[in-house]
Amino acid sequence: MPRYKLLIEYDGGPFVGWQRQEQKRSVQGVLESALARFCLSPSAVMAAGRTDAGVHALGQVAHFDTLSEYSNETVRDALNFHLKPHPVSVVTAERVHERFHARFSATGRQYLYRITNRRAPPVLERGKTWWVAAPVVLDADAMQAAARELLGHHDFTTFRAKGCQAKSPMKTLDRLEITRVGEEIQVVAAARSFLHHQVRNMVGTLKLVGEGKWTPDQVRQALQARKREAGGATAPAEGLYLTGVSYEKAAS
Question: Which residues have a catalytic role annotated?
Answer without folding.
Answer: 52
